[in-house]
Amino acid sequence: MAFAILPLVSRAVCISLSFELNPSQTFKLVTETDAAASGMSVAKLQENYVTSHKLIIPGRISYLLLYVPQSQARHRAA
């Protein structure tokens, strides 16, 4: 049961970092107006958006890590 905490923590960290890098979770291209509003360059803000989207993948994989031990336990019990 203690192993179930690891995927939950990893998911929480990935998703929170994703929202920190891209609070609106937008998929649009970065404009000069967006960059000026956030106080960053266009290149840095675009890099943050890309990194934010890449962090969603490990967050989703952590759901799989939660599911696999449960399905194996059910299979063994049958």
Could you characterize the architecture of this molecule?
With 78 residues, this protein is an all-alpha fold. The protein starts with a helix and ends with a helix. The protein has helices spanning 5-21, 32-38, 42-77. The model has no long low-confidence stretch (mean pLDDT 83). The radius of gyration is 17 Å and the shape is elongated. 77% of the residues lie in helices and 0% in strands.
Question: How would you summarize what this structure contains?
Answer:
The protein has helices spanning 5-21, 32-38, 42-77.
Tags for this entry?
0% strand; 78 residues
Sheet/helix structural class: mainly alpha
**Hey, roughly how much beta strand do the residues contain?**
under 5%
Distance between the termini: 20 Å
Number of separate structural domains: 1
The main pleated sheet reads as: none
Number of helices: 3
Helicity level, as a percent range? over 70%
Write the layout of secondary structure elements.
Layout: H1 5-21, H2 32-38, H3 42-77
Helix pairs in contact: 1-3
